[in-house]
Design a protein that fits this description.
Layout lengths: L4 H12 L4 E3 L6 E5 L3 H11 L8 E3 L15 H10 L4 E6 L12 E5 L4 H10 L3 E2 L14 H8 L5 E2 L12 E4 L6 E4 L5 H8 L28 E6 L2 H14 L3 E3 L6 H17 L4 E5 L7 H12 L3 E3 L1
Parallel strand pairs: 1-7, 3-5, 4-8, 10-12, 10-13, 11-12
Antiparallel strand pairs: 1-2, 2-6, 3-6, 4-5, 8-9
Helix pairs in contact: 1-4
The structure holds threonylcarbamoyladenylate and magnesium ion.
């Protein structure tokens, strides 16, 4: 059942009282707690089984006074806020000391989600909401309420249903705490879209090289239960190799990479979970062009495949 205002107001009361609420955003479902309540945020880590050194993103609405949590606002960050908020973009900024306990060193990650349920929840709660993706740590992020129930059912105080998430991949994370801005996690707001607004950004930071800066990036991610193999390379050759490998496998599933990037992204995590539900032992996918949204898709596929990546 979809969510109504009464339910959102109940959820807001739960947040205010230190509870946990899973809620929809335009990217993936989040597991929210009052960002200013250290004990409540601590429960997020317990429920998800999340490593203690992986910081949380703080969700606010457009009317939030950023000076309450942020020490400095670089002009480029402000330009991106104006261009992409509300939307699937997270900014890492220098934090005001002592406000939020679950940042990274002296930084805080913030975003304004573009989903009516998320915005109403933040509005009625009256506090910033810290929220990681609402999955058990290491599992694919949830893009439907069924995914949230499968991972966290019975473990959280309330789950709000907002239907399937539009983008299906987590927000783009851009770091503004160094000399030049840098993408720590690619998402639906692409590098080209960002560079259109603020000009050239640091090239390094795309993909895998950034583990030290964003602690979350070093952990196992998005892992289906089936063994996932990713084949990189020219389209026809990669397709042939996938077919050949699948033929040798016990009970294989092949990801459909022929769809539009937006469609692949919106369904990627749902596909991984569905393949598990259908009992496949192996999943095969071939690479797509890393331009635009392709960067975010390939980033998630590489993480889901872990070491099982081969090139043709
Ligand atoms: O789309 C999203 O961003 C979703 C929805 C719920 O908003 N949230 C999400 O949160 O993906 P999570 O916790 O699954 O991923 C947060 C990522 C992690 O890689 C974490 O390490 C990074 O953001 N992060 C959080 N705070 C950071 C900080 N202060 N500095 C660097 N990286 C940070
Ligand atoms: Mg996550």
């Amino acid at each position: 059942m979809q969510t109504d205002t009464i339910k959102i107001k109940q959820a807001a009361e739960i947040i205010k009282n230190g509870g946990l609420v899973a809620f929809p955003t335009e990217t993936v479902y989040g597991l929210g707690a009052n960002a200013l309540d250290e004990a409540a945020c601590g429960r997020i880590y317990l429920v998800k089984g999340r490593p203690a050194d992986n910081p949380l993103i703080v969700h606010v609405n457009s009317d939030f006074d950023m000076e309450r949590i942020v020490r400095t606002m670089p002009p480029g960050a402000r330009m991106l806020m104006e261009a992409f908020w509300p939307g699937p973009l997270t900014l890492v900024l220098k934090a005001r000391p002592g406000v939020f306990s679950y940042g990274f060193e002296d930084t805080i990650a913030v975003r304004v989600p573009n989903h009516i349920v998320a915005r109403l929840l933040i509005h009625h709660s009256g506090v910033p909401i810290a929220a990681p993706s609402a999955n058990i740590s290491g599992r694919p992020s949830p893009t439907t309420v069924e995914h949230v129930l499968a991972d966290l059912g019975g473990k959280v105080d309330m789950i709000l249903d907002g239907g399937p998430c539009r983008h299906g991949l987590e927000s783009t994370v851009v770091d503004f705490t160094e000399l030049r801005p840098k993408i720590l996690r690619p998402g639906s707001v692409t590098a080209a879209m960002i560079e259109d607004v603020i000009g050239k950004i640091s090239p390094e930071g795309h993909g895998e090289s950034v583990a030290p800066k964003s602690p979350g990036l070093k952990y196992v991610h998005y892992a289906p239960k089936a063994k996932m193999t990713l084949v990189l390379g020219e389209k026809e050759a990669a397709r042939a190799r996938v077919a050949e490998l699948a033929k040798q496998a016990e009970n294989p599933a092949i990801m459909d990479m022929e769809r539009k990037p937006e469609e692949i992204a919106a369904n990627l995590f749902a596909d991984l979970r569905r393949f598990d539900a259908e009992g496949h032992d192996e999943i095969f996918a071939q690479s797509i062009d890393e331009a635009g949204l392709g960067a975010a898709i390939m980033n998630r596929l590489k993480k889901a495949a872990g070491r099982n990546i081969l090139e043709v």
